[in-house]
Amino acid sequence: MAEQKPWTRRTLAAQALGKVDAQTQAVVPPIHIATTFIRDPDNQYRTGNIYGRPDNETVREAEAILSALENAAHALVLGSGMSAATAVFLALKPGDHVVAPKVMYWALRNWLMNDLKQWGVAVDFVDTSDVNAVRAAIKPGATKLVWLETPANPLWTITDIKAVSEIAHQAGARVAVDSTCATPVLTRPLELGADIVMHAATKYLNGHSDVLAGVLATNSDDDYWARIRRVRAIQGMILGPFETYLLIRGMRTLHLRVFEASRNAMELATRLANHAAVAEVLYPGLSSHAGHAIAAKQMQGGFGGMLSIRLRGGEKAAIATAANVKLWKRATSLGGVESLIEHRASIEGAGSPCPPDLLRLSAGIEDVEDLYQDLHAAMG
Ligand SMILES: *Cc1c(COP(=O)(O)O)cnc(C)c1O
Prior knowledge:
The chain is α/β, with parallel strands linked by helices. About 35% of the residues lie in helices and about 15% in strands. It folds into two domains: about 10-250, Type I PLP-dependent aspartate aminotransferase-like (Major domain) (Aspartate Aminotransferase, domain 2, 3-Layer(aba) Sandwich), CATH 3.40.640.10; about 255-380, Alpha-Beta Complex (Aspartate Aminotransferase, domain 1). Pyridoxal-5'-phosphate binds near residues 81, 108 and 334.
């Protein structure tokens, strides 16, 4: 028989790694719900299953799929994107220093600004799209972690993962990337040199706006990863088995959804850039975007489903547009099959770099003509 090429990530995701239930030959494995397991008569636990808080077989199935998607050796599924992100910071030690982006997911930025110091960890926020600014912010010896998000909420700022990883590693710091909006379909941060990749699986990975979940993945099974595992186990941050099953089901269509959302976002960005009511479109797929060249290098197959528009009529026009849409759903979050629109400044609060005239758009998988017409009418 001829040698076969390894199956692609898309194929592996569609079949959830092709796992079949050994007892029934079911093409969908059963959901493992037990919280406790029988000890062997000689007091051992040979299956590796002891108790539900540190680990779960259904969760391990999701982690195997995520490892394949991110080209990672190890993955952890957690109860939310925030529990995944905070576990990475809670595994640091008092005295450690962190460099984080000025433009990033607002709830994590607020937690870093207001709460992390209680654990003795200091944070500096820099423009991570400027490699020299990152270099200047790193304190060799003290900086243990550089946190990135690309494309970053809500301006879709692009950071060069490869360049920042080189700088961070020279100074002995790890790099973690919130890759929620890029998804493993379009970008694989570990292949670009990052040490840890994080996802709010609530968004594209699940894709149906009905599960809160988080993911971490890495190739380094070191002390730091062990501390992150321990944070999940001790604090009970593992995702429940039913939600994990939904996440696995969602990931079967990940590639279809992400490619379609990216196509819709690109089409909307192109058309809205020429719309009389729109002052600016922020989308890394447009050559006018400051991060376009780096995005074109580190994203493959599309630029993602997220874009923002700034309205010529200012904040009032932005809020009115969000009020007028009929098809777009006026809601926070992103990455679902349904398109969402949000006046971002209303939610981000103090310290946000988000201008008041900005609407954030999460392009879903609907007919792009319907999506455009609805926006056009709402801006009218
Ligand atoms: C939603 C989101 C998070 C937080 O995820 P939750 O599941 O809501 O806790 C983190 N980062 C990004 C980029 C997000 O969009």
